[in-house]
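Hello,

I think I submitted the adenosine-5'-diphosphate job twice by accident. Can you confirm which output corresponds to this input? Input:
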Amino acid sequence: MLIPRPASPAAPPVLYCGPTPESQAQVPPIRLLPETTVNRIAAGEVIERPAAAVKELVENALDAGATRIAVRLEGGGIERIEVIDNGAGIPEAELPLAVQRHATSKLADAQLVEIATLGFRGEALPSLGAAGRLTLTSRPAAAPHAATIRVEGGAVSDVMPAAGAPGTRAELRDLFFATPARRKFLKQPRTEAEHAEAALRRLAFAAPATAFLLEIDGRTVLDLPAQDRAARVAALLGADAAAALIAVDAARDGMRLSGFIANPAITRTTTAGQSFVVNARPVADPVLRTALRVAFRDVIAFGRHAVAALYLDLPAAEVDVNVHPAKTELRFRDAAGVRSLVIGTLGRALAGGAGSAVPAPRAMLAPPRPSYAPSYQWGARPPAPASSHAGWGVAEADGPVVLDLDAAPAARRLPTPAPPEADHPLGAPVAQVLDTYVIAVAADGSLVLVDQHAAHERLTHEALRTQMLAGGIARQALLLPAIVDLPAMDAARLLDHAADLAQLGLEIEAFGPGAIAVRALPAALGAPDPAPLLRDIADELAESGHALSLDARLDAIIARLACHGSIRAGRRLNAAEMDALLRQMEATPRAATCSHGRPTFLRLSRADIETLFGRR
Ligand code: ADP
Ligand code: MG
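Support: Only one job matched these inputs. Its output is below.
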């Protein structure tokens, strides 16, 4: 609250945005604000938009032990919000207290340090009643009937008997009718409804055992049954991510991190696919968000965001939730410990070789569209597969899948493919298509399609990184230095970073204006053409040179180096090379995606193929 003070002539000039000096001749005396005004101001802090009202009401329902919560919004929640629960209810005699400020049933002994419930300030209901027209109707299971109380713009009604099932129904109409200035800051109803839906989804992650229903203007937007956490996360994250979830679970120093991350082939353009729950409370916490980003840094493309639902449980005394009125921000006592638990746990989950911990990006399959999924058509029955394919499980006796590789000039079938072995999840190579993709078949009949460049790029990336962590990247000196001409800016930029690059096995020095002499290259790259390599690294430095930490910058350069040292698309591979590629992928961390975050392989299991053909 800005209280303008009269400026005496001797006083230094004061910057203020209140009335002009003349009008300050008659400053009103200091007085206490009426309680309704105080409540309206406080209300604005807690309830800044309909989503906040939804959050507070649903949290109350969860605190009351509800197993079913229905939320209905009209006009983006500005016109009307209704939240109905089947929780414990409020005894008739306590209704007036429930809507009074700082009245709560949840903070028994002023123990602000150990807070187990979602609400604890006793601020939400009075704030809602100050910001809009609140009707609270409630009935504990044992009560013979319900009772109702109304609060409009802060004015509290008498308690009246009412009809109603056990539980509580809160209805909030005309949000901010009493504070039109605040109402002006609201967005279009559609946007407000989206915020409210997002708030409800965050709570739904935190409370999978509770069923949620959300209706917006009469349309059902969310209908979640009571379910276990895995099912709830899958239901909320979207079909593509749901099909590619990796479970994580690790404990350390009394903390436990569990939940799910999506295969890094599934990413989003925003962080909207990330949800964090700390001690059953949905939070927007920068420590957790940053740790997630770091863990995914080099398995997803720059500018993309991981999909994850992570649950952190730790002793209540280790975390302060009393930082922000909306209670979504926290302060960890041991933020560094939390950070390293997240980065370490996710790093391990992502580090499985291709085909082991990380499932194939099955999710990229389009889900079958029922109207296009005909029951099996006899007329479409293909001829029986040639016997040479039968042993591979690619074609089934009555199945529609036939690989006729001999007929396609762009495909080369290996004359004598080795049989697939059970402990090779990526299978045995059977062919190369377009000189770019390797087709393999696994022992269980899954069909595996590998992008040879993307895959090899990751292998080179990991080899370089391992060498760097072990003390230095092995370099291969050139017999004659290669001279590369570059735009002067690029040359200067590279020379600025010559010391960093030398650590990576790339030795360069100035060679007259706009030219660079390359004396050594990382040995793992083979014999790449130095000119495009230097140009790419100059680009990388221009893009990320100052934005990233040294570590991140080196890793970004390693990714570029890896790209140049890898089998190109369009190179013909022999059987031994293909097999070596698959086996190395299985043994290499993070090998399910390339350094740019694209998938390195696709796997079609029998079930996937049946789904694609509408047989399931
Ligand atoms: P807080 O949740 O911080 O205690 P609120 O103003 O949100 O404060 O609620 C005040 C009190 O009203 C709660 O402590 C609780 O006892 C009661 N209450 C509110 N909503 C419900 C509900 N849906 N079911 C049962 N009790 C409720
Ligand atoms: Mg509350």
